[in-house]
């Protein structure tokens, strides 16, 4: 159980509004820190927050069919706005457009190696630190933590899909 003095102010406010298991609060804290990291990393590599989020989707889906329309859907913006966003990323050298091999009318968004390298280069020290942190736990503890985090990620994705489908029903 976390001591009150160890709990950030924002989390103390949230805890006053609802109750949850300590693991859920710890995960919420990780999510909050990850969001802060994404904003800091976006600024470091010279991208707007939405453009950085788009780069994340493009990098995650590399090798699949991700065009401006699909990117817009993932980001919750119009196809036209997504096309403008892709134009900015392409002009800055972060992505390229490539014709689809099977449907030449279709354009896929492809991350450029230099942009991927810059983003991953900024993350490398963090991954090293997290790997070192993991070594503080026994293999059994690592397995339990991994199982929890993977299951939590599944729950987050499921809840996200539920929110997305319920908002489109309105």
Structure description:
- This protein is globular.
- It has one domain: Winged helix-like DNA-binding domain superfamily/Winged helix DNA-binding domain (Arc Repressor Mutant, subunit A, Orthogonal Bundle).
- The protein has 170 residues and is mainly α.
- The mean pLDDT is 89.
What's a quick, concise take on this entry?
The chain is mainly α and 170 residues long. It has helices at 9-17, 22-44, 49-60, 68-75, 79-91, 113-134, 139-169, and strands at 95-99, 107-111.
Number of domains: 1
What is the CATH domain class? Mainly Alpha
Please trace the helix and strand order, writing H or E for each element: HHHHHEEHH
- Measure the end-to-end span: 40 Å
Mean pLDDT: 89
Q: Can you tell me the overall shape? A: globular
Oligomeric state as shown:
single chain
| Fraction of residues in β-strands | 5-15%
CATH topology, by name, is: Arc Repressor Mutant, subunit A
State the CATH architecture: Orthogonal Bundle
Question: Which radius of gyration do the C-alpha atoms yield?
Answer: 19 Å
Q: Name the poorly predicted regions.
A: none
Layout of strands and helices, then pairs:
Blueprint: H1 9-17, H2 22-44, H3 49-60, H4 68-75, H5 79-91, E1 95-99, E2 107-111, H6 113-134, H7 139-169
Antiparallel strand pairs: 1-2
Domain HTH marR-type: 20-154
InterPro entries: HTH_MarR-typ, MarR/SlyA-like, WH-like_DNA-bd_sf, WH_DNA-bd_sf
GO molecular function: DNA-binding transcription factor activity
Notable features of this structure?
170 residues; mainly alpha; Arc Repressor Mutant, subunit A; two-stranded antiparallel ribbon; 7 helices; 2 strands; 69% helix; HTH_MarR-typ; DNA-binding transcription factor activity; WH-like_DNA-bd_sf; MarR family transcriptional regulator; MarR/SlyA-like
């Amino acid at each position: 159980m976390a001591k009150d003095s160890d709990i950030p102010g924002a989390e103390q406010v949230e805890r006053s509004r609802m109750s949850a298991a300590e693991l859920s609060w710890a995960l919420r804290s990780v999510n909050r820190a990850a969001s802060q990291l994404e904003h800091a990393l976006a600024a470091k590599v010279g991208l707007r927050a939405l453009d950085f989020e788009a780069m994340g989707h493009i990098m995650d889906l590399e090798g699949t069919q991700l065009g401006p329309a699909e990117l817009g859907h993932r980001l919750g913006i119009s196809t036209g706005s997504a096309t403008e966003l892709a134009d900015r990323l392409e002009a800055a050298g972060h992505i390229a457009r490539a014709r689809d091999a099977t449907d030449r009318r279709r354009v896929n968004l492809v991350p450029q190696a230099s942009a991927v390298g810059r983003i991953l280069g900024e993350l490398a020290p963090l991954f090293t630190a997290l790997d070192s942190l993991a070594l503080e736990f026994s293999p059994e503890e690592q397995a339990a933590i991994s199982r929890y985090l993977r299951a939590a990620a599944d729950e987050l994705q499921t809840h996200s899909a539920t929110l997305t489908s319920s908002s489109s029903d309105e």
